[in-house]
Q: What sequence folds into this?
């Protein structure tokens, strides 16, 4: 079944709830750049989609980086002078700064304070902190709790391992009729943060499930990997095949209540950029279209100048613009089933355009074809109202000169792609159009 | 005499009245896609301009179409149960649906009603209806009259012929000094509709009369033909000469009180499009410039992808946007002498640009020429006010590098074409400019 | 020292006062198109900067013009019937129309009046008038004074010489490391008009003094010359070297209180145009960017089509737009130290861009470089705030593909050039960038 029809048939309410349920399932796992939390997450995804899990040994060269040491935590807590566990990793993953080194010490409050992070502006939230490049340890806690700490000796325990192991990522490939591929990438290195990025993971998983059941001209490759080093690992292992990646999308922060934001690829006017701009322009809801910037999510690596792949980034509210970002307030309430479903629909609409954006040759190029006698045209003699369907037929016929693709025609006409595609399908059936297979076929009758 | 001067000399009030009088003369004739009404119209035009009348036999192939059967009406009426002629083609052409088949029957009101068209929203107007492709008959009448019909038997008479004959169109050609041509096309297939398209016919006729008396670098070809099939007939008979058509204009609906609207050709930035955009920008009145769309008037056939000729369309209020369109309210009061004269002037101004838009080479390219010593420049030393004429001289000198035409210079300068043309004429006379005949002449001093 | 650092170190208040003092020093001198006033002005400038003074004999061919006769005045006055000197050139240079021929006569008021110019709208101001091309004489005076003149005989004396001599201009050249040059031109042909153009002269002189002490990649050539004929004289003597002029700027009317206005060169998007647009966009104050027009200051000659050099014009309020223009109200109060200093700073900022606008190749093009481990990046893991410096590093790395210059990167990033340049300098030092010396070096890895 064509992707367009699959999308029409989706029930946004049902699928939004299923996506949220997946996020809820994965929320408690302690994902980080490496470690067992990532593996557990990917193994759960294997129950939903076919997924190959790759391990890249610590220290492997990843261009200017290398695969990091592996980090795992058994337990981590702080006991107050009275012996109470006042901060416990078991109760919230964010309590422990990611990549904290092991420690088992008793410290005075004064000695402890430099190892505590809190958010004075949001005193009940726990911040998310990492220290990938410096060997440190720290705990994160609500500012209210921090302020309540009394003098005395505190027992600090971090029972963690940080050493040789591997970086883990997951990959799915759904082949298409042609060799060209769409790459979808979601980072999976954050613990207990719902929008960042269980929302992206859920969207990618459900997109893969839907695509698996649809007719695909293009291949679709899904990557679930830790930020920065994950994409670099994949790129370094797949360089010879990169030319097949014709379109790409990073999915991150796609579950909050804000409108959709699309950040263009470095190329700026790649097919994915044009398709997304079109889909958002014809969306009922507000949407933002942003130029490329060299900071953001994993599109950064694919858009580095040595690759310059056409990979854009789909978000809702951009990551610097909501206070819940990288705090415990980015929780399961912060993401909405309706937003998740809407983000998924935008992806599928874009895939619909990428699948169907072809050029055709009008077989009756001189003068207009008589659409009426072929039952294609509904206009009544003397009346002056044409419907969108009639307009679409005229636009497709007039601009199917082999030089304008259906998306370009839709843009010229101000019509949604689906209606132009439907018109083209009708005209193909009536043998008024012929697909252009080689550019050389475009005659010189124009 | 140069067209620009001819236009300056025109008295808009007088010519507007003459144009309206021509429309009034032709208003009662029953024009349709074919038939004697078209012939009578064209024969009357022969009294005003040289016009060749062409006949294309019914059934002749016109690309995807064919020349239609010919339709003529002797009489057509409905008698009510009391024997009164309540609807009579003799009193208004619109009462009979165009291409109605012959009928002579007595029908109950119930049987008659499906054959009656009216406009509930405009109950005193008669709609205009056609049935070119289905063999049907119908009458059109005011909704008020339709509502007043009582039960009983109605006598219906349509004494018409619909069968082999020919499609008729008229053509005038005014040769120019060069081989390139401007094509002007007006559809002549509507009965008793003043704006659509006696306005276009009158504008074309008066343009031809004025051009006949002016110096012409370009040839001008005028076509009066029924919509769709007329242009297709002409195109099919003139394919070898189409390369000569360098500019084209469909004239339709150019008499109502609204501002001028120009719809660009499919090429979008053809010389005619640029010239019209310039003329409208420098017009005192509001004007609309619209992108190409593949529906509208006869520009559609010329702008089909197999021809892609640079033919735009000049209208006033676009055809879907006024309620009088295709009704008896599109009558002689609906069109205004001042609007007709203004539409004509816009056409002539565009022809003025097309005639005069050439590139020149400044003969003193290094530094400014001393215009003062040649009596060309009016500026006073120390004063700071230059007139439009002085500015035009400077612009033409500076940009006459063989790469900028006068229209491009006028656009850069924000000056009307006529003032730039006048400056160029003065500079030519002073031998400060030389026309560029071949692009190769543009030296490499730039 | 790099120009950027020199500019940072300037004290605008001090330098503005010095510039104003220079204008005050030169204000009383009677400059005209030729003559001793020009020589005296240039000799004074020689005390501040190295300056070669050139003399071009009257009658020398200057393309379509010729070097004018030389004009010098010993004294000029009008005595009223009572014997009082009511108008005296010794009290204000503007009292005498420039290029007035000698006269020594007694005239009735009626005979005198046609030789008097005044400004009825500004009755206390003296207008500035010239008559370069017609042999005439006239006096300029306040309208109030003119209105007070009683009948009687007036003695008129103009003790002047107008005959063979020479046109004088001054030139300074500061060589750079490379052969390419920046040309700065200021007209020096107006007497006792402060904004027009002692402001331009002062700005050019101080720019030359600053540049003399800075490291220069480019050469800088300063020209102080009478309008029209001065640039034509220089052009005619320097044609073989014109290809070295890669950027140029006319400085005129840069001292009034209005915001800066930059008029683009004829090329419109030359490097100087882009650099100035960038500098003005990142300026704290309002600024105007105007398209090229073929009238204005001396950029006209350099921008004639036979040269088409990239010479723009920096002004503050454009010359036609303030009533003081070409009157005695354009005096030392009309120009402001702060405006002069600001105009100078804009020039230096533009030179900073021209000096530093190079393209580089990212040496780690695949994936992002690890800036943190090189001490370049300040971002904290988990935090979401990057500073302008961090952004600049990312932009420079991502777009240093040999196809984007630093200015283009600054424009894409919306960052001031100086911050992008500083980032590039840091990255160069860390060997993450390499300058592109030949375009061919830009590999095909993109």
A:
């Amino acid at each position: 079944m064509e992707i367009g029809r699959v999308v029409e048939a989706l029930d946004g309410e049902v699928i939004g709830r299923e996506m949220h349920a997946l996020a809820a399932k994965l929320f408690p796992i302690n994902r980080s750049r490496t470690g067992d939390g990532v593996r557990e997450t990917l193994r759960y995804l294997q129950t939903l989609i076919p997924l190959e899990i790759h391990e890249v040994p610590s220290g492997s060269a990843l261009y200017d980086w290398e695969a990091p040491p592996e980090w795992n935590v058994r337990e981590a807590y702080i006991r107050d002078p009275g012996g109470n566990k006042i901060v416990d990793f078991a109760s919230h993953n964010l309590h422990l700064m990611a990549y904290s080194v092991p420690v088992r010490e008793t410290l005075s409050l004064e000695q402890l304070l430099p190892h505590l992070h809190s958010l004075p502006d949001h005193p009940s939230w726990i911040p998310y902190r990492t220290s990938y490049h410096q060997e440190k340890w720290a705990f994160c806690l609500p500012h209210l709790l921090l302020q309540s700490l009394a003098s005395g000796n505190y027992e600090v325990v971090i029972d963690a391992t940080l050493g040789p192991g591997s970086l883990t990522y997951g990959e799915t490939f759904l082949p298409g009729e042609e060799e060209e591929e769409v790459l979808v990438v979601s980072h999976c290195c954050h613990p207990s943060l719902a929008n960042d990025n269980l929302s992206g993971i859920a969207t990618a998983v459900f997109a893969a499930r839907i695509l698996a059941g649809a007719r695909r001209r293009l291949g679709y490759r899904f990557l679930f990997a830790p930020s920065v080093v994950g994409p670099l690992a994949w790129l370094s292992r797949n360089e010879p095949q990169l030319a097949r990646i014709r379109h790409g999308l990073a999915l991150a922060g796609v579950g909050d209540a804000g409108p959709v934001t699309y950040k263009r690829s470095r190329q700026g006017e790649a097919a994915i950029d044009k398709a997304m701009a079109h889909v958002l322009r014809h969306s009922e809801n507000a949407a933002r279209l942003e130029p490329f910037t060299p900071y953001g999510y994993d599109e950064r690596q694919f858009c580095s100048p040595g690759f310059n792949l056409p990979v854009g980034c789909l978000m809702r509210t951009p990551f610097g613009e909501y206070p819940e970002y990288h705090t415990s307030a980015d929780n399961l309430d912060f993401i909405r089933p309706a937003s998740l479903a809407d983000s998924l629909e935008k992806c599928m609409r874009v895939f619909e355009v990428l699948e169907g954006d072809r050029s055709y040759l009008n077989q009756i190029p001189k003068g207009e074809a008589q659409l009426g006698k072929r039952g294609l045209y509904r206009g009544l003699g003397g009346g002056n109202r044409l419907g969108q369907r009639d307009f679409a037929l005229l636009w497709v016929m007039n601009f199917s000169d082999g030089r304008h693709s259906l998306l370009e025609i839709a843009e010229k006409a101000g019509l949604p792609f689906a209606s132009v595609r439907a018109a083209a399908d009708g005209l193909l059936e009536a043998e008024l159009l012929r697909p252009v297979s080689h550019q050389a076929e475009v005659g010189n009758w124009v």
User: Anything to note?
Assistant: Chain B is about 30% helix and 20% strand. Chain B touches chain C through 28 residues (CB under 8 Å).
